[in-house]
Amino acid sequence: MLPAFLEKLITEKALNLAAYKAEHITAPVSLHANENPYPPSPELLEELRESLVTLELNRYPDPDGQKLKASLSEKLGTTPDHLVLGNGSDELIQLLIQVFCDPGDRVAFPDPTFSMYSIIARGLGVEPYPLVLSDQWDFKAPENFDSWKQEKVKIVFFSYPNNPTGNCFSAEEIQKVLNNFEGIIVLDEAYYDFARKTFLDKLKQHPNLILLRSLSKIGLAGLRVGYGIADPCIIRHINKMRLPYNLNSISQFMTERLLARFSTVEDQVDILLQERERMSTQMVKIKGIQPYPSDSNFILFKATEGTALHQRLLSSGVLIRNLVGHPRLKDCLRVTVGTPEQNDKFLSLLASE
After folding, report:
1. Predicted local distance difference test score (pLDDT) of residue 13
2. CB contact at 8 A, 214 and 89
3. 4-40+263-351: which CATH number, 3.60.140.10, 2.60.40.3210, 3.90.1150.10, 3.40.630.30?
4. Do the beta carbons of residue 335 and residue 279 sit within 8 Å?
């Protein structure tokens, strides 16, 4: 309990904020955090070991990540001045709200979606503006955008595919937003490698469009690497807010080398996509289980007595995500696609009484 005088110093927005709860539970089979179940290749790990001699960890990292940006721009078919690097996508979400919003402004996002859009906004004194999804978890653009303007919406975030529902929203509906909304439109493509759907080709036509990508879902979650793609003018303003040296030397090195060996990641993604379809097919057959279509590396499903099922799986060594906290996700669980052996154990437990 804080002394009364300290309690009074804490801002109201901080007092009223609930922290993001990232589970850190040890389980033999962890299928809860949308990570790649496969570790980096032995060759990549050997390069890391060798690099520790030459990386000069007593020196600051490249503040602009020039070598990594060069690798990314080559892969994306763009130029380095269209890129900004972040300590995960979360940092970039925070930077975008700092750049484009003042206290009292609002950020819009589908609901349910990635909870950090709301948490970061509220922490910066910016109000959330939830956009209710259909029963099939799809988004429909408004007939006109006057209400968004009146509500001082400055940014709209689309998780594409959406977390936790797993689906990509209608591209036609998002295009309506691109054509009509005079604010910032962010396509958070953290799961792009699994969906293989992108709005990258729309950047030239829509300078208010920003794309976010992440390396966390394809093998480097522990190194926290995200990046944004946008008009160079937007990138320059983001860099005014970005803290210096926000991406450490090891993260920069490992990401650049992962991109150089990207065929290994692509092989892993192919396996995970095959496993996703196998899991969905099997889950449909299990009584009391309703899986939703997924474009990502996880599956949202509804279960009879979801919380009880979550605990039963955990007691048997399989950890998945319980989404009970959202009113529209009662009895909904989210399972990350794992290795075939991990998925077999999950499916076996799911089908057992």
Report:
1. 74
2. yes
3. 3.90.1150.10
4. yes
Instruction: Check whether the bond before 63 is cis (ω within 30° of 0).
Output: no
Alpha helices, H only, the chain = 4-9, 12-15, 42-54, 66-76, 88-100, 116-123, 146-150, 171-180, 192-195, 232-241, 249-260, 262-284, 306-315, 340-351
Determine the pLDDT at residue 214.
96
Going by the DSSP 8-state scheme, the letter that residue 48 receives in this structure is H
CA distances from 64 to 81, 257, 321 (A): 10, 17, 36
List own/partner pairs for 143-146 with CB under 8 A and 24 or more apart. 144/180, 145/180, 145/181, 145/182
- What are the residues facing 211 on neighbouring strands? 187, 229
Burial class of residue 78, CB neighbours in 10 A (0-12, 13-18, 19+): middle
pLDDT of residue 14: 76
The domain made up of 57-261 has a fold known as: Aspartate Aminotransferase; domain 2 (3.40.640)
Per-residue pLDDT at 21: 65
Query: In the chain, what percentage of residues exceed pLDDT 90?
Result: 88
pLDDT of residue 151: 94
110 has which bridge partners?
A: 131
> Is 103's pLDDT higher than 70?
yes
